[in-house]
Amino acid sequence: MSNMLIVHGGGPTVVINASLYGAIMEAKKNEEIEAIYGALGGTAGFLNEDFVDFNKEPQEKIELLKTTPATAIGTSRTPLYEKEYNQMVDILKKHDIKYVLFNGGNGTMDACGNLAKAAKEHDICVMGIPKTIDNDLAVTDHSPGFGSMAKYIATAVSEVAQDVRAMPIHVSIVEAMGRNVGWITAASALARKNKDDAPHMILLPEVPFKEEEFLTKVEELYNRLGGVVVVASEGLKDEKGKPIVPPIFKTERATYFGDVGSYLAELVIKKLGIKARSEKPGIVGRASATLQSSVDRVEAIEAGREAVRAALAGNTGMMVGIDRVSNEPYECEYTLISIEKVMMDEKVMPKEFIHENGIDVTDSFIRYCKPLIGGDIPDYAYFERNKEVSKKI
Prior knowledge:
Number of helices: 12
Largest sheet: 7 strands, mixed
């Protein structure tokens, strides 16, 4: 008899607990596994040996994991070095843990790979479960967490658009998460139903931001439509690759920047004399269980199950990946990817998904993204106006 440990790392998603559910339920089917531990507080909880045994928890609580946002066992961004990985191996041996599952994004997969190397000679299997709202994990078609965030941003932009169209006197800047990649920002395009629907501009970090071109386009849209909705990535960069907003705070491991949305709104007000305001869903979006994608939830559960099956089969240093078989009907299958192909590598938006004008996405991206949100964005009623509405401040 051996035990299993599940660890969450990095920022949570609305389906990371669904993967936890899948892993627990698959592990419960195997008599070889006695205790199914969860590290309370990510790698920090791992190092502190702060574990919960899911076999001792009521099944009613386990079932709630499927639709519980964030992470029920906590997470962390604890710095890890050789000393910590060796300490982890000692902890695993102490608790007779033969199988370890890391659920997370780029940094977590790096930790997964490093622990797999340190633990290999001790006959301990370490597997990765993909998770990220940013959709930036390499090799896999997409990652659990992105589909729900895509649904949220598209729904939010669609709702904002109704407000802006009802009183078309200003420019609304919606800032989307994704510091280095534009997948979430791009997903806002799913809000559109008809020509001239919002978002009217999509600003990706993969495309250099040009202030004059931005202001010219905003003014043209405003003069033609009245209300304008712009969705901008929090990681917008200029032609030199520098963030368009300056850093406001730095630590040893991270740099914190000002809000892109506020910066762009101020530009519009100061340079064009047009009312503008910014919105920043942020954590509200990634924690929205109400807008959880059903497809995302199912895939997250299955990714957890697949990781357990792979570990029990003796695999280590691998991550569960998702391969797309077809778009219509949408179908995918699960595969195993060497963790070395994933560790600390970011998947940016490919050129074929970015419109040639640099401020929109292509139909190819829409076909890629739409199946992941688990349904259509709602339709809304609207009656066209016949008279002019004042637009200036």
